[in-house]
Specification:
By secondary structure, this protein is mainly alpha-helical. The chain has 2 domains: 10-85, Arc Repressor Mutant, subunit A; 92-134, no CATH class. Helix content is 57%, strand content 11%. The chain contains 8 helices and 2 strands. It has helices at residues 13-21, 24-36, 41-45, 53-65, 87-90, 93-106, 115-122, 124-133; strands at 69-74, 77-85. The protein has a two-stranded antiparallel ribbon with strand order 1-2. The longest helix has 14 residues, at 93-106. The model has no long low-confidence stretch (mean pLDDT 91).
Length: 134
């Protein structure tokens, strides 16, 4: 787990945001929830970036502690959990859209995914509403 004692000493809102959700794996977990509707530990493990189990467990715990996600027992399998975004997590939708817009503009690699940036360009309000609803 990250060193919690070093966090938030400056009072800077950017530092607070980065401490809360600003690392690669936290943002990718949030992406999986917002864009793909993933809700289970196993679904997060299947993401293209191949997150390791210890990093995933750490990020899920951190995001839950920060109030970005919540977990509940899976009603179909009481040994498993379902993770969902809280209001605080859903409020990250505009930030995720800006990251998509920036990445879509500057990622010129031939294999770069274009569907989300194009959707954003064509229907920002609808795309944001969809992200907040998941």
């Amino acid at each position: 787990m990250r060193n919690e004692n070093k966090k938030r000493q400056s009072g800077c809102p950017i530092a607070y945001a980065l401490d809360t959700f600003g690392d690669r794996w936290s943002l990718l977990v949030i992406r999986e929830m917002m864009l793909k509707g993933n809700k289970t530990y196993g679904e997060f493990l299947e993401a293209d970036e191949s997150i390791s189990t210890n990093i995933l467990a750490d990020r899920l715990k951190h995001l839950e502690t920060e109030g970005v996600i919540e977990k509940a027992r899976d009603p179909d399998n009481h040994r498993s959990f379902i993770y969902t975004l809280t209001d605080k997590g859903r409020d990250l939708a505009p930030i995720m859209l800006e990251i998509i817009a920036w990445g879509g503009k500057y990622d010129q690699r031939p294999f770069a995914l274009r569907a989300a940036p194009e959707r954003l360009q064509n229907d920002r309000a609808g795309f944001e509403a969809e992200l907040r609803a998941k």
